[in-house]
Amino acid sequence: MNPYRDRVTGEMKTAFIYTDAYLDYDYGPTHPLRIARLKLTYDLIKAYGLLDLPSVQLLPTLKAEEKDLAVFHSEEYLNILKQANEGHFTGDAYLYGLGPGDNPVFPGLLDWSLLTTGATLQAIDFVASGKGKVAFNIAGGLHHAMRSRASGFCYINDPVIGIMKLLSRGKRVVYIDIDAHHGDGVQKAFYGSNRVLTISLHETGCSLFPGTGFEYEIGEGEGEGYAVNFPFPPHTDDEIYVWAFEEVVPELIHVFQPDIVVTQLGVDTFYDDPLTSLDLTILGYERVLKRIKGLAPKWVALGGGGYNISNVARAWTLAWAIMNGVELKEELPGSFLKEAMKMGIEERELRGRPKTPPRGENKGNRAEMERVVHYIKETVFPKVKR
Ligand SMILES: [Zn+2]
Fold first, then answer.
1. CA distance 370 to 363
2. Cβ(308)–Cβ(273) under 8 Å?
3. N or C: which end of the chain has fewer CB within 10 A?
4. Does residue 88 contact residue 98 with C-beta atoms inside 8 Å?
5. pLDDT by residue (tens digit) across 336-378?
6. 280 alpha carbon to ligand 1 midpoint, in Å?
């Protein structure tokens, strides 16, 4: 036994949290959020051998306890979720954002939320207690849920609950949300705090749910300057997105000096996502993730949106490879392709062959984001401190 080597590998350990029990739940046949995408991602990660690396621990998801949810969510809302969990839809549920549409009532919806939140708490514990440097919960990142309201496919806000756990351990946190939708629930929970710096990059609220996340939302009270928003216009491409990220995020992390970076890694920014209008490709996504890996002292990664399931599986597999410092061959493993074809997936390569998105609108988009970046530098940079 070589103690020095142990110390090095201990530092490099990573955790992937997953269970097939996710597949017991279903938002319904016409709902865009397909839980099967989690299994598909797990299958691709496994097929590439990324769970067999000596540094990797595969942790089976453990359900959170109801008391874990109560640190953020109200008692009356949790009671409504308990009723909904049995598949009962009461008239009151409407008042809490539940009902046909985005946030359907389905049997076991609270159990589903206890799993997604439990996995986030496992990821938080793994990293915060020093067992390893990186943990990934692909089922988490349900960033729209509010204290007493379901919103945008999210019932329980696992990023908020996880970050609250880190705060209770005295940690300073940077939250980076690269989902196409504004991370409104997380921003709101920490809007008055200077111990959590929330940074959300998303399609502008002028064209996309939830209609918030403008650059002038910068926090309040002690938290003024500790909320940062990039509202990208529709058809923003990789170049503009990565440029804006580089202009702002590294500097803020350098100044704030977080103990841990928590990220929401939604994949609904891609040009071929059916719900949104940004024009990113997996190549831009990869550049941002590599940058986050270099910037984060410790990293808790959560999933998020993504409604083209081929994109989800390939992008989160690439993300997990980056987290582990591994290069993957471009050709998708044969064992995965068989399963993927049954689900209508045609891509045979990890990064696929991203088509060049139409660039006609990007001159105006560049000017708009130069204005936003300038605004952030003028208003936020002077306020953020260690
Ligand atoms: Zn989203």
1. 11
2. yes
3. N
4. no
5. 999 899 999 999 999 987 776 655 567 899 999 999 999 999 9
6. 14
